[in-house]
Amino acid sequence: MKKILVSSMFVLGLSTAAFAQTPTTFADVDADANGELSLSELQTVWTDLTEDEFTKADADGSGGLSATELNTLQPASVPAAPSEPAAPAEPAAPAQ
After folding, report:
1. Is the Cβ–Cβ distance between 1 and 8 less than 8 Å?
2. Any idea of the CA torsion for 6, 8, 14, 20, to the nearest 10 degrees?
3. Among 66, 45, 48, residue whose Cα is nearest residue 57
4. In the 3-class helix/strand/coil scheme, how is the chain assigned residue by residue?
5. What is the pLDDT confidence band of residue 10, given thresholds at 50, 70 and 90?
6. pLDDT digits (tens, 9 = 90+) for 27-56
7. Phi-psi region for residue 61, left (φ > 0), alpha (ψ -120 to 50) or beta?
8. Model pLDDT for residues 87-96, shown as the tens digit of each residue
9. Phi, psi of 37, deg, nearest 5
10. Domain extents in the chain
11. pLDDT tens-digit series, residues 58-80
């Protein structure tokens, strides 16, 4: 039992360490600290971002996204929330 507990604590510790290393701010993702995010920098945290989406968001054509340009990209890329929640399903009739 002690081995299971120690193993579980070890696995949880590793997953916490990996999560703590995930960049979460603009500055964390801006690896070269130039004040803009390149496509490759963004794709480290936003893996499904396409070059076309990136280019459309790059309003000044600098090859990188400023914080303002990044903010304009995000709402267009996130699916809209449904306007009304779906009605709950009717309970199934008991089997006879």
Report:
1. no
2. -120
3. 66
4. CHHHHHHHHHHHHHHHHHHHCCCCCHHHHCCCCCCCECHHHHHCCCCCCCHHHHHHHCCCCCCCECHHHHHHHHHHHCCCCCCCCCCCCCCCCCCC
5. very low
6. 999 999 999 999 999 999 888 899 999 999
7. left
8. 666 777 777 6
9. -105, 125
10. 22-75
11. 999 999 999 999 888 765 554 55
* CATH architecture, range 22-75: Orthogonal Bundle (1.10)
List the structure tokens of 34.
């130039």
Q: How far is CA 27 from CA 2, 36, 37, 66, in A?
A: 42, 9, 9, 11
